[in-house]
Amino acid sequence: MCGRFVQNSPLHTIQQIFGVETALLEAVPNYNVAPTQKIFSIVKHEHKNWLETLYWGLVPFWAKDISIGSRMINARAETVAEKPSFRNAFKKRRCLIPADGFYEWKGEKGNKQPYYISSPLVGPFAFAGLWEKWTDKESDGDTVYKSCTIITTAASGSVREIHHRMPAILSQEFHEKWLSPEIHDPKALKIILREGMVHDLKYHPVSKIVNAVKNNDPSCIEPIAV
Asked: Which of 7, 53, 118, 152 could anchor a disulfide with 38, C-beta 3.0 to 4.6 Å?
């Protein structure tokens, strides 16, 4: 699972790497992104890549209210095409979620050590994600809630020692395929997830201050000795 991550790259870097033509936000650094927060994501609109803010925790269009989102922060790659909560978005509403790294915990319950996991390469990478638009029917359609989820998969050998799951990170040559509205077939999409996955990652231990969402600054990702 992926329950915390980092988005701290400047807007111009995100625009350059991900071919963003339209940005509807300011990229404010977040060193401790947590579920239900607004995060920036890349979606395809009118054949262009847009950078938008979405709530982390997908709310299906058929949900009665948005409370379900807190339980939908991740979608397993193995079952995403079949699960009622995700299968429609998997076919029609995919996104890229820029990230500079993510956190995972290892150890005994009550004394787990957090680790910061990132790419050996400079710059942000992209989680494969899904997005959805939910409308509050009781508000005559005036309330629209846009949300997203991060697809997870079996951990690569480079981080398996820390945790058995990891976000599905797509290499840059697969970004446009993932966003393409022309691709609907679940089998083709699963091939993209499999063949486009980034396997080579690095990690280091960080302070337990990341356990508290209120702690949100560069010290969260600084290496410590354990």
From this structure: 53
CATH number for the domain including 60? 3.90.1680.10
Residue 141 has a pLDDT of 62
Name the helix (H) or strand (E) containing 92: helix 87-92
Return phi, psi of residue 98, to 5°: -65, 140
Render pLDDT for 42-59 as a digit per residue (tens, 0 to 9): 999 988 999 999 999 999
Percentage with pLDDT > 90 across the chain: 86
Q: Which two tokens stand for residue 172?
A: 């840059």
Distances (CA, A) of 125 to 14, 96, 169, 197: 9, 9, 7, 11
- pLDDT tens by residue, 126-156: 999 999 999 987 766 667 899 999 999 999 9
Buried b (16+ CB within 10 A) or exposed e, 68-94: bbeebbbbebeebbeeebbbebbbebb
How many distinct structural domains can be found in the chain? 1
66 lies in a domain? yes
Residue 215 is part of which domain span? 5-221
Residue 226 lies in a domain: no
Any domain includes 95:
yes
Can you spell out the DSSP letters for 165-215? Answer: EEE-EEPGGGHHHHH-TT---HHHHHHHHHHTB----EEEEB-GGGGSTT-
Q: According to the model, what pLDDT value does residue 139 have? A: 67
Cα–Cα separations (whole angstroms), residue 62 to 48, 58, 132, 200? 27, 11, 10, 38
